[in-house]
Amino acid sequence: MAASRIVIENCAIATVDANDTEYASGYIVVADNKIESLGAGKAPENLENVVRRIDATGHLVTPGLVNTHHHFYQWITRGLATDHNLFNWLVALYPTWARIDEPMARAAAQGSLAMMARGGVTTAMDHHYVFPQGSGDLSGAIIGAASDMGVRFTLARGSMDRSEKDGGLPPDFAVETLEGALAATAETVKKHHDASFDAMTQVAVAPCSPFSVSTELLRQGAELARSLGVRMHTHGSETVEEEKFCHELFGMGPTDYFESTGWLGEDVWMAHCVHMNDSDIAAFARTKTGVAHCPSSNARLAAGIARVPDMLKAGVPVGLGVDGTASNESGELHTELRNALLINRLNTEHREAALNARQALRLGTFGGAQVLGRAAQIGSLEAGKLADLVLWKMDTLAHSSIADPVTALVFGAAAPVSASFVNGKQIVENDRLLFADEEAIARDTRAEAQRLARIAAGA
Question: How many CB atoms lie within 10 A of CB 396?
């Protein structure tokens, strides 16, 4: 059967390929779910089976944004503990989080996904690690929400087995046993993970953090992931308190502890990595361990400024993350392009050159694809790759006097999304979701947030 083609023309294009190829005015031809061709000027003539032509005058087309770290369930606990550092924030919120159930998880996932998708995210991920006893099929609810919205998705199936009685932070009833966590994680991978080129759903093994999981869960989790051929994700080196915790409990810093448990490698990415010394960065570079940089959350929780320019120079794969919306209430990834650039200019020598606009865009696209293990399929606009792309409207007042569209996108106000495509299928039009009712999601998430607050208050 002949491929159905969509032709996008008259747009600026930032491909984010290996050479950072850009076109001031060019075209993209999408055939079914892949990019067939792209280049300067007009699209080739006499293309067969063209079902749609888009005149994208005034637009910049980029790869779809790739989010590499999030906690969807936190959508229904936004705006709480706003003046806390990480440990105090966790202590304040775990008693509430420990009472989530399946309807809450689904509503929160819908809210989180909707906010990202309407802002240019085409690939999302969720690190979900809170599985209270009797809470229902939380993983299935989250995956279902992503499928309904048409977003490409990685579920990092998290786990915790170190509760308050073991010196951890979560309440005792909110954690799993070692055996239970491993079995449930394996079941989720086998049920939901798709290893195909154009997979819409993938699953990673993701014990939560050094201070909420046992050494054995980390070690056996790594063995499980590698036996199943899936990626691995966790939090690492987020705060000075975490570093102190690791030294006191394990006699070594976080990076050395992770390496001792099998948690460095090309199949691993970690969130935050704020407090990394030269040796830590070298270890990540040597092993090609990835980093999910979450600038807004790091600032919100006063965790510090990650050494992203140094990581990039060393060859560490780095992507961007929203992080949970209890520590980044806006829930948008496109604002992280700007925040990553600005915040990293506060923390280095030659600060004005720490990151530039194109490096920031690469973090949010190809860098994210790298750390999710999908750089061969997404993250740049190239013939043969999947058609995940965004049309940013750059001819409004907000960007009218900025000549360079990439500079306008990163340095300027958030640009409207005229269209967003995943797998060649449009999911956003003129800043509105095509497969979700935003007003209904707002009502549902408000109701579930209020229900959770009542349950937590009465506990």
Answer: 11
